[in-house]
Design a protein that fits this description.
Shape: elongated
Structural class: mainly alpha
Order of helices and strands: HH
Helix content: 55-70%
Distance between the termini: 40 Å
Low-confidence stretches: none
Mean pLDDT: 83
Number of strands: 0
Number of helices: 2
Length: about 55
């Protein structure tokens, strides 16, 4: 059963990429902060005006 799961994981990694790795911007503290600061205003708007209800 473990072999089947590992094979499925390897196949998905080939198709979709390795999901175990974090995006580059998460490694660098300054890049992480800049991304959060860019996203924060949109997140605030979405809390007031949710797209999905």
């Amino acid at each position: 059963m473990l072999a089947a799961a590992e094979a499925a994981d390897a196949s998905e990694d080939e198709t979709f990429g390795n999901s175990d790795e974090l995006p580059d911007w998460t490694v660098d503290k300054q890049k992480r902060l800049a991304k959060i600061q860019r996203i924060r205003p949109r997140a605030a708007v979405l809390r007031v005006f949710p797209i999905c209800s």
